[in-house]
Amino acid sequence: MKLEQFPDPYLDIPWQDLGARVRVSGSDVAVTLGYPAAGMREALAGRLAAFLGVDHVDLDLEFRAPDGRGPGPIKHIIAVASGKGGVGKSTTAVNLALALDREGARVGLLDADIYGPSQGMMLGVPEGRRPEIVSRPGKPGGEDDRFFVPIKAHGIQAMSMSFLVTEKTPMVWRGPMVSGALQQLLGQTLWDELDYLIVDMPPGTGDIQLTLSQRVPVAGAVIVTTPQDIALIDARKGIEMFRKVDIPVLGVVENMSTFRCPECGHESHIFGAAGGGRIAEEFATPLLGQLPLTLEIREQADGGTPTVARDPEGEIAAIYRDAARHMAAELWRLTSAGDRSGAVPITMSDD
């Protein structure tokens, strides 16, 4: 079998159809994928060896993000959204961003929840720390433009309203002011080269969602929900909203799927079972991951070191990293199908 016919583990589509770069020399295989996958190199090497019918493969796994439509240095913008609050959306957003970074991508995180920004605390940014402001030449004869320098935390670039106000400052703003603040945070931040900018959206389907979808080239969205029926109703609304504005939904993440008793190990479906899977199946989108209801996820996020940063090789971090790879793979599939000019060509060598 030819290696270019190998079906991608997440997409089940041959690499040649996706535009992967594959180079073979004896047992040495070099593969460049359109999504970051550093954490699955060993597992993928085993699957490739089985596919080729050989004992082992020495795999050199690399990543190159497909060309995107993001503004300036940003290739792809991915919105992480939920139909209602309290389902763990912000915790999911920060862990997905950190997971993409650990998998080998350049990542930024924008906290678009203007009314209730939380990413500063989750990333462990001390209260009172402010982003640096730099000037760049503006229009001829005009004043220089001023930009925020994103704050770096746990390896990713971040910007949040929480960096600009105190925790006790309420944002008593009407919709247009909130939309303007979002555009300023996105457009007046000097992001360094990013493969992905993860946007932590506020819950619901209001002004921020419309502003982002209408004025920013969002590449895709991830919907976060719990298995609970009331949460699923709102998750459906969120998916339908993104569909109406022609933003593809890359998948669903289900939080609080099960609770494992720390004493006896018994698992209970406190909020219902398989709700995220039903939503994903209904809208023909992948179920990216199911996260358990555990104290450590909450404590680690509240403590400023989210799960993927605290224990990147741990069991729960593995779920986030798998979800992040799958999410980015779905985006690669859409990019390859819609515009092959950004795909990575296959080259084969047997010498």
Write the CATH homologous superfamily of the largest domain: P-loop containing nucleotide triphosphate hydrolases
Sheet of most strands: 8 strands, mixed
Mean pLDDT score: 87
Poorly predicted parts: 339-351
Overall shape? globular
Return Rg in Å.
Answer: 21 Å
Q: From the helix content, strand content and strand pairing, which structural class follows?
A: alpha/beta
The CATH class of the largest domain is identified as: Alpha Beta
**Which strand-content bin applies to the residues?**
15-25%
Give the % helix: 25-40%
Overview of this protein structure:
With 351 residues, this protein is of the alpha/beta class. The protein has two domains: 3-65, no CATH class; 74-123 and 151-336, P-loop containing nucleotide triphosphate hydrolases (Rossmann fold). 33% of the residues lie in helices and 21% in strands. It has an eight-stranded mixed beta sheet with strand order 8-9-5-10-4-11-12-15, with helices on both faces. A three-stranded mixed beta sheet has the order 1-2-3, with helices on one face. It has a two-stranded antiparallel ribbon with strand order 6-7. A hairpin with a 2-residue loop joins strand 1 and strand 2. The radius of gyration is 21 Å and the shape is globular. The two termini are 17 Å apart.
